[in-house]
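Pinned message: reference record for Histidine--tRNA ligase
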Amino acid sequence: MAAKKKPTRVKARAPRGFVDRNADDLRAQERMLATIRRVYETYGFEPVETPFLEYTDALGKFLPDSDRPNEGVFSLQDDDEEWLSLRYDLTAPLARYVAENFEDLPKPYRSYRAGYVFRNEKPGPGRFRQFMQFDADIVGAPNVSADAEMAMMMADTMEALGIGRGQYVIRVNNRKVLDGVLEAIGLSGDEKAGQRLTVLRALDKHDKFGDEGVRLLLGAGRKDESGDFTKGAELGPEAIDRVMGLFAGSTQGSRLDAIRAAFAGAAMVEEGADELSRIEAASRAAGYGEDRILIDPSVVRGLEYYTGPVFEAELLFDVVNEKGEKVRFGSVGGGGRYDGLVSRFLSTPVPATGFSIGVSRLQAALKNLGRLEGAAATGPIVVTVMDRDRMADYQAMAARLRNALNGPGRPVVPVEVFQGNPKQFGKQLQYADRRGSPVVVIQGGDEKAAGKLQVKDLALGKEMAAGIEDNAEWREARAGQELVDEADLVDAVRRILDARAGRE
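Predicted structure (tokens):
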């Protein structure tokens, strides 16, 4: 008789590019989101929520490839054979929402949204298929003062999260400047699209490679220290000199003057430079210096997406990468003006500006700075079980503690009854210790008969036990443990929690 095959077990594994997050991660994220939300609301923004799924055509040309609905996004067909896609960002769904509710919304419409977005792309280190963004947008505001306000709010958000001045900067540029530069050096037309992209990528590397490196990338190309060669844009010397005029100034005013001088007569460059000048003036008048909001012509974002000012929130401190090298942490968010997105759904132009924070990346930065340390939630008070037949008594104790210790405006104090196997009492204390419990409540038959119970301060018990070497002495000391009347349970637990707060 053939031996029975063992059933094949399903391998427990998360899909590539998706991650599980534990309680500490989620609590830290919620604290961070609450801080960001508070900043947004001080500027008059209100929340809105859109679905995870949108009709694929609503995401439109902003998908990587609109002819292949599942390229870059996760898509499916519903019963009506309509293509649906998981949202790629939070801005395209907002545009659809505004267009659908246009007559009912106040204009300008200020909103914020936090939620997961999905990219059907190859995952890698720090690159996920599901991640959270936190966006803020003003729809219906044509003036660049709205863009200046966005940059100021980004700066306020960084500082509210504990990222001090000198550790971040909000860099601001304008797509009109970049598009005008490309036009002025003869890179208009579809046939020049590849060369335009190479020029923009070169500009984006200015903070990394400096003037000389960018010159090489604008010309024949650049070889790095490892010998790898990056092909350049193959511009001529005169065009390279003009493009490098973007970086000629050393201060905000002189930089804008240098841009105007290098591209005198280029109407689009002039228009973009004027908008940057107005953003600079508004920021400085509100008290935001160059150490917080910086005009930077190397900022390149959204080739199809943005139509005016663009911004990027960059963290300036160093971290150690996976190769053990010190590198600048870099961007944690960005945005800009996108006057064409809402208009796709309507017959009228609708100006808009906004920015998006990469929540997971920003959370990693805050951990690196130690800004999320020491804020873990209190572990539960654990009511131990000495007699299975008395579960009703233990549940009554837990309910009494929950009702007394929790209330409106107070930090949550969780209370639970141990629900595992109660045979080995030591296992219950190990469980409480692993949960970070501040207090355990113990009542056996003898204590019940006497109307008493034990409350044990686990942290104090550890401190006291550290100085006791003899096992008998430890049992005699009953470290951190107190016998109290049943009626005094709540007061006894409160004393321990207050004492713990004082020690911390």
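Pinned by admin. Summary line: The chain is about 40% helix and 20% strand.
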